[in-house]
Amino acid sequence: MHYQVAEDHRFTAIADFQILDEDGSMSLPVEGGSQLTENLVAAAFGDYDSYLVLSHFKGHAMAGFGGAIKNISIGLGSQEGKCLIYTGGASRTSPWGGDQTAFTESMAEAGKSVSDYLGNGERIVYINVLNNISIDCDCNGKAFKCDVAGNQN
C-alpha cells in the first residue's frame, strides 16, 4: 500500500525509492546510553554507505523541536525501534506511556548510534531548513499557522 501511495503522489515518477523498514529491524549498539542498549533501525538502513538528511525544523509535542536528530532517530527507526524510543526502552510493541525525559534521552541515544554507525558522523550530511516554522509537527494531523516567519514584535 505504501508503494501505491508513493505512486499516487508521483514520487515514483522522479526517483526509485525503498521503504527501509518493510523487512523489519536491524540492531545498532547504543554505546553509553542511559535508556537504550540497542537502537532498532529499519532493516535496509545498512544497504547504504552514507546518508543525506534533509530536515524541516518545526515544533514537536514531545521532543520540543523536530529536525535532524528526530529524523535520524525516530525517522530511521523500525516500528519496534520507534516504540523503544518513545517509551525510553520499555516497550517494543507500543509507543504509549513513556516518560518525556526518557523519550528525549532515547531519541538522542538512537541518533548517536546512527551517527556512530556512519563512521562517527563522517558519512552523514545534514541540511536543515528553517522556513515557516510552526508550533507543532506534521504528525499532529492539523495544519498550524506559521509562528516564526513574518512575526515582528
Short summary of the structure?
The chain has four helices and six strands; from the N terminus they run αβββββαααβ. The protein has helices at 2-8, 68-73, 79-86, 100-117, and strands at 25-29, 38-42, 51-56, 58-60, 64-66, 124-129.
Helix and strand arrangement:
Elements: H1 2-8, E1 25-29, E2 38-42, E3 51-56, E4 58-60, E5 64-66, H2 68-73, H3 79-86, H4 100-117, E6 124-129
Parallel strand pairs: 3-6
Antiparallel strand pairs: 1-2, 4-5
How does this model look, in words?
This protein has 153 residues and is an alpha+beta fold. The protein has one domain (22-138). The chain is 25% helix and 18% strand. It has helices at 2-8, 68-73, 79-86, 100-117; strands at 25-29, 38-42, 51-56, 58-60, 64-66, 124-129. The radius of gyration is 16 Å and the shape is globular.
